[in-house]
């Protein structure tokens, strides 16, 4: 079985992705140095661009794992170029996750890559393909939280620290929510190969609505409170204080004006 794509261009990194990466680097630098006249705008662009980079890598992980599991059609679809324009649903892939961040301060990648599952043999391979995406978010969370739990924040500007804390929150929420065993999310994809055929058929009609169901559920105050208590506990264990993620969100929402509490906390 071959696992290679047929053309070098199928693997070439897209200029679109490189552009998003450049925006992340430039706005990260502007946040760090205080170069931007309005720090909130720089934080918004930095977090948004970094979030989109993580979305691209999340989907790349799905695609790459599928390629090495037997779906050799992945390369021709452009999924290995990291170009979000190649994804199956642009609205679900990029626009909706960014709106989730703006509206609720949570990270939840949407469905983007179409995998030809009939090409893949073995339940473990199917499960690993589904798990690859949220595991990428786990890796991002480790990278974002490392300066906090390593105690390497001396001299780090407050705005950059807050932005990094908020970005870490997005990655942790993305990993946890995606691992939920809800149809349409990666957690269900991990379990699906092990379910009976009849049960899969019964659940299949609900898959398109799983993402919206989870988001709607998080708007219930009691559920939202418990969920973020869990997230805060995880981040606290990783050295990130609740104030830091709060101020990161406040900076991200620059259109709401300056938060005096965060100015004192800095």
Q: What does this 3D model show about the protein?
A:
The chain is mainly alpha-helical. It has 11 helices and no strands. It has helices at 15-33, 39-69, 90-104, 123-149, 158-178, 186-191, 197-203, 210-218, 221-237, 242-252, 260-265. The longest helix is centred in the N-terminal third of the chain and has 31 residues, at 39-69.
Blueprint (SSEs and pairs):
Blueprint (H helix, E strand, L loop, with lengths): L14 H19 L5 H31 L20 H15 L18 H27 L8 H21 L7 H6 L5 H7 L6 H9 L2 H17 L4 H11 L7 H6 L1
Helix pairs in contact: 1-2, 2-4, 2-5, 2-10, 4-5, 5-9, 5-10
Could you write a compact summary of the structure shown?
With about 270 residues, the chain is mostly helical. It is built from eleven helices and no strands.
Distance between the termini: 56 Å
Instruction: Give the averaged pLDDT, no decimals.
Output: 87
Structural class: mainly alpha
Q: Biggest sheet, open or closed, and with what strands and sense?
A: none
How many strands?
A: 0
Report strand %: under 5%
């Amino acid at each position: 079985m071959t696992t290679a794509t047929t053309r070098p261009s199928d693997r070439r990194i897209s200029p679109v992705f490189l552009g998003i990466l450049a925006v992340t680097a430039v706005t990260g630098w502007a946040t760090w140095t205080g170069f931007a006249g309005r720090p909130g705008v720089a934080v918004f662009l930095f977090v948004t661009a970094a979030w989109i980079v993580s979305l691209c890598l999340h989907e790349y992980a799905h695609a790459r794992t599928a390629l090495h599991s037997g779906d050799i059609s992945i390369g021709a679809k452009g999924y290995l170029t990291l170009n979000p324009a190649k994804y199956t649903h642009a609205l679900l892939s990029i626009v909706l996750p960014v709106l989730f961040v703006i509206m609720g301060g949570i990270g939840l990648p949407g469905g983007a890559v179409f995998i030809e599952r009939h090409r893949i043999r073995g339940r473990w391979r199917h499960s690993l393909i589904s798990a690859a995406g949220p595991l990428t978010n786990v890796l991002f969370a480790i990278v974002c939280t490392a300066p906090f739990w390593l105690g390497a924040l001396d001299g780090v500007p407050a705005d950059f620290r807050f932005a990094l804390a908020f970005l870490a929150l997005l990655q942790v929420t993305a990993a946890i929510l995606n691992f939920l065993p809800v149809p349409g999310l990666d957690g269900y994809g991990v379990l699906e190969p092990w379910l009976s055929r009849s049960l899969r058929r019964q659940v299949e009609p609900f898959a398109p609505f799983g993402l919206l169901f989870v988001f709607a559920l998080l708007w219930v105050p009691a559920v939202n409170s418990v969920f973020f208590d869990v997230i805060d506990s995880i981040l606290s264990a990783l050295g990130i204080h609740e104030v830091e993620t709060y101020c990161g969100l406040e900076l991200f929402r620059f259109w709401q004006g300056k938060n005096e509490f965060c100015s004192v906390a800095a």
